[in-house]
Amino acid sequence: MARVNLNAQRITATVQFYTLPLMHQITAEVLRGAKRLAPRGDHLSGSGKARAGRRLEPSINSNMSIRPGRIRSKIGSTVNHAATVHQGSAAHTIRSRSGKMLKFRWDRGDFLIAARAGRRGGNKRTGRFHYFMKVRHPGNKRPVRYLTTPLEMFGRINGFRVTTNPYVNRTRLP
User: Fold this and answer.
1) CB of 78 within 8 A of CB of 130?
2) What's the CA gap between 78 and 55, in Å, rounded?
3) Measured between alpha carbons, how far is 28 from 64 in angstroms, rounded to an integer?
4) Rounded CA gap, 61 and 38, in Å?
5) Integer Cα distance of 141 and 41 in angstroms
6) What is the residue-averaged pLDDT of the chain?
């Protein structure tokens, strides 16, 4: 009877030697695809000025961790609105905080307010600011799946099993 002694460390090192370059390549492809699909618009605050904070596309980054049994690569963003852009959002109410009024630039606002008051037309100046205590936001019905689309495309093409975190499987964020 023959006896076989397997050197687990050597097997792990050999597997990582062949797998690591492929993982680096696929991670780079998914990262490029995510940055290409991410929206590139500036968010305006209530004053109409560009909102301070990081934009989505430059904030997307990757992180790879290597353990004896697996190589894991994470790609994501740390900005607050990243999940809402990716998942979409349900209709919700935005309320003012601490008694301050919400300020919005609303092009059609004068016409709608005049129509409700029974007048024709309205103020011809567009882009005026309007003030409210609360606003019913319709939500984001068209999420941009900038992370899962390139992950499924490049990962599955190269024969990898693709899994995502549980919160990604929800249709919309609350």
Assistant:
1) no
2) 10
3) 11
4) 12
5) 17
6) 78
149 and 72 belong to one structural domain:
yes
Residue owning tokens 């353990």: 67
**C-alpha span between 150 and 11 (Å, rounded):** 31
Q: Residue 2: inside a domain, yes or no?
A: no
Mean pLDDT of 60-75: 88
Find the domain containing 30 and state its range: 7-45+52-88+142-174
At residue 174, the pLDDT reads 45
Mark whether 70 and 23 lie in a shared domain.
yes
* pLDDT above 70 as % of the chain: 74
Angle at 18 between CA 12 and CA 23, to 5 degrees: 100
CA 144/CA 77 separation, integer angstroms? 14
- Calculate the alpha carbon distances from 38 to 57, 81, 92, 122 in Å: 6, 12, 23, 38
User: In angstroms, rounded to a whole number, what is the distance separating the alpha carbons of residues 162 and 156?
Assistant: 7
- Please work out, in degrees rounded to the nearest 5, the angle formed at the alpha carbon of residue 73 by the alpha carbons of 71 and 78: 150
Q: Average pLDDT in the 58-66 region?
A: 91
pTM comes to 0.67
Residues 56, 59, 50: CA angle, nearest 5 degrees: 45
